[in-house]
Amino acid sequence: MITTDICIIGAGPVGLFAVFEAGLLKMRCHLVDYLPQVGGQLSEIYPQKPIYDIPGYPEVKAQELVDNLMEQIKPFQPTFTLGERVEHLNKQEDGSYILVTNENTQIHAKVIVIAGGLGVFEPRKPALEKLDYFEGKGVTYMVKNPDTFRDKKVVLAGGGDSALDWTIYLSNIAERVTLVHRNETFRGAPDSAAKVFDLANNGKIDLILSANLKELGGNGQLSSITLEGKNKEEIVIDTDYLIPLFGLSPKLGPIADWGLSIDKNAIEVDTRDYSTGVERIYAIGDINTYPGKLKLILCGFHEAAIMMHSAFKYVYPDQKLSFKYTTVNGVNAF
Ligand SMILES: Cc1cc2nc3c(=O)[nH]c(=O)nc-3n(C[C@H](O)[C@H](O)[C@H](O)COP(=O)(O)OP(=O)(O)OC[C@H]3O[C@@H](n4cnc5c(N)ncnc54)[C@H](O)[C@@H]3O)c2cc1C
């Protein structure tokens, strides 16, 4: 059981900055995110795009902002559970909560902050018979730990940045990497595509274009994949793993069943402190809604500051909160 003052669901920019605001008030945070890395939409969708409306930064690349946020919150030693989705919320007699993830990690917290953005990014899955059966038995949609694929045969499928980047990365680790794509050209970054073509031309990977996944084979564990090629011919590949990378689509997911007031896939909050109707549960960032809401990073940062001041009373019920500027108090590391 992980024990913390505040559990933040979502390690996007708003969840990360909330750690800083909590830390200033001496409240510890644990963050959970379904993605294998922090940064939310910024790291997953547009890491190299410049953002122009973060106060004090005329221009900052999305990933650079995430890296800076991680640096800023270091003094407050946040802890993370990545690659897991929060599924259940169990209220305790003293008002605190135990959160449970899809992998049965349990987190005990006095306050819950939902900073879940657009929701859980669910992988788009190929329409294949027996796909469910082979999930976790060779079929995976995320590379959580690249070492899992060391000296294994791996087939990746897709034509975007993730498929290209992981093909390049795993080509140095796996016994054999095959990239399957239904077109002749890639949607991902041109320099990554060029690198993949180079690897294929040098015999370092197998590249199969204009082909589609057709059938999975194996007895209890994936051992082969049948493709349908350009001329409807069948191509059978022996493999240990299939990683389909066809993009992610956001879903509100289990949060929708927690008795919160939901309007058009967003959680309604009280703008005085971004609390939901349920005691000790707050919602900040893209996931909340209120009159005049703007889905902007800077608005989420503001919400995080206000919300943490409100949550103080649950973490330190016997103390009076006194507001201090960082210029006066500094950043007192844990
Ligand atoms: C292409 C693009 C360009 C943009 N440009 C700008 C810009 O220039 N300026 C600007 O201010 N904004 C911009 N935005 C919007 C900005 O990215 C969002 O406002 C911001 O990401 C919201 O941050 P967040 O932390 O609330 O949510 P997110 O970044 O969405 O992060 C939420 C995280 O919560 C996780 N999560 C959700 N539910 C669960 C669960 N049950 N269990 C575990 N994890 C969960 C998700 O996996 C996700 O990582 C842009 C967005 C896009 C797509």
TrEMBL record:
Pfam families attached to this UniProt entry: Pyr_redox_2
SUPFAM superfamilies, sorted: FAD/NAD(P)-binding domain (SSF51905)
Cofactor note: Binds 1 FAD per subunit.
The keyword Coiled coil belongs to this UniProt entry's keyword annotation: no
Co-factor(s): FAD
Top-level taxonomic group: Bacteria
The FAD/NAD(P)-binding domain, residue ranges: 5-291
GO molecular function: ferredoxin-NADP+ reductase activity; flavin adenine dinucleotide binding; NADP binding
Protein name: Ferredoxin--NADP reductase
Organism, as annotated: Cecembia rubra
